[in-house]
Write a structure and sequence with these properties.
217 residues; alpha/beta; 2 domains; six-stranded parallel beta sheet; 5 helices; 31% strand
C-alpha cells in the first residue's frame, strides 16, 4: 500500500521533485527559464501537491545519477586528518581571510582591533561536529559566511556595535554546529549565507548539464 502524498515528509518530497527538475533541465527537456521558475515554486511551496504540480508533465529520472551527485555536492565535508584543537586569527590594523578549502579547528579565536576578518565555511572541511568561534572585536569588522547545511548559534555580546545573524539556526540534527561567542565592541559582526538554496541548486543543475553535454559528445 502506497503512502498518501500529504502524509509523506515534505522535505523528502521536495528533494525528489528537485531531482526531477534537475534531470529534465540538464537533458535539455526544459529551458533555463522554466527550470528557474519551477524551482522558485518548489522552494516557496508549503504544500506537497504544489511541488508535485511542477513536475506533472516531466519525465522521472531513469536512475539515481542526479541524486548521488546532489548528495555528494551538498554533503558536509569532514576531514580525516588531525588538526590542532585551537587556532587564532589576529587582525590589528589589517585584515585576515579564511576561505576556500581549509580544515576547521574545534575552536577558532579571532582578535580584531581596527581591522577586519572573513571566515568562509562554504568549502571548509570540518574536524568534528561542534565548532566554537570566539570573537573579540574592537573598532573592527568581521564577516562569517556559511552554507545552508550547517547549524549556527550566535551568542556574541555586542556593545555600541552591530551583530547581524542572517543564517539559519537549524539545518539538520546531524549537521555540524558552529557556536559564535565573544565580545563585539564598537564593531560590526555579520553572519550570513554565502549562497541561497536557489543559487546552490542552479549552480548544481548547470554542473549536471555540462556533465551530460560532455558525455553526449
Amino acid at each position: 500500500m502506497s503512502v498518501k502524498l500529504e502524509d509523506r515528509p515534505i522535505d523528502q518530497v521536495k528533494e525528489e521533485v528537485v531531482d526531477v527538475l534537475v534531470y529534465n533541465y540538464s537533458h535539455g527537456i526544459i529551458s533555463n527559464e522554466a527550470f528557474e521558475r519551477r524551482l522558485d515554486a518548489v522552494i516557496e511551496a508549503t504544500s506537497h501537491q504544489v511541488m508535485m504540480d511542477q513536475i506533472s508533465d516531466l519525465k522521472p529520472a531513469p536512475d539515481d545519477t542526479v541524486k548521488k551527485h546532489k548528495e555528494h555536492q551538498f554533503s558536509v565535508n569532514y576531514s580525516d586528518q588531525e588538526v590542532q584543537a585551537t587556532d587564532k586569527m589576529i587582525n590589528i590594523l589589517g585584515t585576515a581571510d579564511r576561505s576556500g578549502v581549509w580544515t576547521v579547528p574545534r575552536e577558532l579565536k579571532v582578535f580584531t582591533v581596527l581591522g577586519g576578518s572573513t571566515i568562509d565555511f562554504t568549502n571548509a572541511k570540518f574536524s568534528g561536529p561542534n565548532v566554537n568561534i570566539k570573537i573579540y572585536s574592537l573598532l573592527g569588522s568581521d564577516s562569517i559566511f556559511v552554507p545552508e547545511n550547517i547549524n549556527i548559534v550566535s551568542k556574541a555580546f555586542c556593545m555600541l556595535g552591530s551583530v547581524q545573524n542572517k543564517a539559519p539556526s537549524v539545518a539538520s540534527s546531524v549537521a555540524p554546529t558552529v557556536t559564535i561567542e565573544g565580545v563585539v565592541l564598537l564593531s560590526d559582526l555579520s553572519i550570513k549565507i554565502k549562497k541561497t538554496m536557489k543559487e546552490s541548486f542552479m549552480a548544481f543543475a548547470n554542473q549536471m548539464k555540462a556533465m551530460f553535454d560532455d558525455g553526449s559528445k
